[in-house]
């Protein structure tokens, strides 16, 4: 069972690959990641595929600081709705706690935790927690680079930070200085950032408690912890897996680490089935996508996990008793 990472983690990847003289579409195709999926706010991709892709890209394009470069061109929006919570916490301490608490909404394959080795220092430690996934040097450097940027956005550009990596140095001193702008230590027992503890009480400028409350409510309702009802967890996984083109009962059972028959039996106690949940999510998403005029019908079919547009046509007939074009025309007229 492999975890998923929010597709927005890929933002900047195609542009950086082209800047280095490569073809991003060839890498995306090789690792079975849909082109353009990084623009979908609620789409997810397999974490191992993403990690292997950026490792391979770094090697083949002879760019050992690829992960660092990627962190420099990504913003806080790369972590999705978690960014709204972080920007609107009262203090840096609350933001660090929220980052660790809600990291599952970005990916379940990486854990962020805090530690206080002394009374004057605090660490934010990033750990890969998915078994069987190779240690990704580029992914770690990208993640830590984003942590440094986030900290400076929240606490100010002059906040003193020190970075630690478990692995040895990959790039030149100049590359780390340009990307991180702080001391870097290699061959350490942990990976992450360290900052003075007094920074924790620093207030975040322009924080909006109401915006934070709304974001937390959305996050907890949309990205469910393991205690949520099974049918809701299946629905969440379906939304993530549909754009990848392999959303089925077997795949969802694998993600939940249960046998497919066990999954169906447990869903039956909630009055539904895996296929019914998947179909309901497809129908809901189809209505959203068809109301968006910028999306082509072929794109919509792909986002719903269909390999042929004809499958979308049949489903729309079944769901709405209309063709996709008729749905679009009717709903566009209603919106005007």
Automatic annotation (TrEMBL):
Residue spans crossing the bilayer: none
InterPro entries: AraC-type_N, Homeodomain-like_sf, HTH_AraC
Pfam family membership, one: HTH_18
Domain HTH araC/xylS-type: 232-330
GO CC annotation terms, alphabetical: cytosol
Keywords associated with the record: DNA-binding, Transcription, Transcription regulation
GO molecular function: DNA-binding transcription factor activity; transcription cis-regulatory region binding
Classification via SUPFAM superfamilies: Homeodomain-like
UniProt entry tagged with the keyword Transferase: no
SMART domains according to UniProt: HTH_ARAC (SM00342)
Name by which UniProt lists this protein: AraC family transcriptional regulator
